[in-house]
Write a structure and sequence with these properties.
Blueprint lengths: L2 H8 L2 H11 L1 H4 L11 E2 H8 L3 H13 L3 E6 L2 E6 L1 H14 L1
Antiparallel strand pairs: 1-3, 2-3
Helix pairs in contact: 1-5
Length: 98
């Protein structure tokens, strides 16, 4: 776990918002055609955010580099889910260290 990469990823409010949306995908992405078990399609995140595809892709890349989300490619689509194991380990580390 790269604590510095996680802090960098969490320093941006858009990335924190994406993580919050992915925590309750049924609440925020119910209109997605594919099952939410796959994760949330990048296009759905673009649409909800109102930001450009390239901006959201950069945010998702930062979250992925910090291992806060995991991608799953199905055909031409990429779906994202939270990496609960990394999030839990990070929170435990912060709780224990501080």
């Amino acid at each position: 776990m790269d604590i510095d990469a996680i802090h960098k990823a969490l320093a941006n409010p858009v990335r924190r918002q994406i993580l919050a949306w992915l925590k309750s995908p049924g609440e925020y992405f119910a209109e997605q055609e594919h099952p939410l078990d796959f994760g949330v399609c990048c296009g759905m995140i673009d649409k909800r955010s109102g930001l450009s595809q390239s901006t959201i892709s950069a945010h998702l890349a930062t979250l992925q580099a910090a291992e806060l989300i995991v991608p799953r490619r199905i055909g031409q689509w990429v779906f994202f889910k939270r990496n609960e194991a990394t999030i839990r380990a990070f929170l435990e580390s912060i709780h224990g260290d501080l």
